[in-house]
Amino acid sequence: MDMYAVTVPVFDRMLGNMQTWVRIARDHAKAKGFDESVYLTLRLVPDMLPLSRQIQIASDSAKSAVGRLAGMEVPSWPDDEATLDELIARLQKTRDFVTSVSAAQIDGSETRAITVPRRDKEPHRFQGEDFIRFFATPNFYFHATTLYALLRHAGVPIGKMDFLGRS
Known about the structure:
- The chain is mainly α.
- It is 58% helix and 8% strand.
- The chain contains 6 helices and 2 strands.
- Strands 1-2 form a two-stranded antiparallel ribbon.
- The model has no long low-confidence stretch (mean pLDDT 96).
- Strand 1 and strand 2 (121-127) form a beta hairpin.
């Protein structure tokens, strides 16, 4: 498996798509005349994390996956974004970090031991290839898809091609 090819370009593209969705949401709120901050607390059910956390977790998932596979210290950022523009900036910061990691840093990480800490539980332990296939990528897409669904549910005019990204 080409570990670089299934991580950096994939995360970068979807993070860019997510930036587009949030920009469309911001512009939609402006065009309809309501406060865009309404979007920040969107959730489908009461015990679900809000839209802002979906973006933060997707960001954390992408940077953590790439950093761990590269054997690097994963940057830690506060989850303090309070506007759509700040969330767009976080997505860009994530893209900047992810794309700063070279193929040479990730190549050969298929068997690298990856440990993912968990609160009050034993950490998850993987080899690199299983980490990316069965944990990191699904987790990233879970939160990206949830962001997309929240925005669609709120009437933001995005569609399947926005999710997939226009080439």
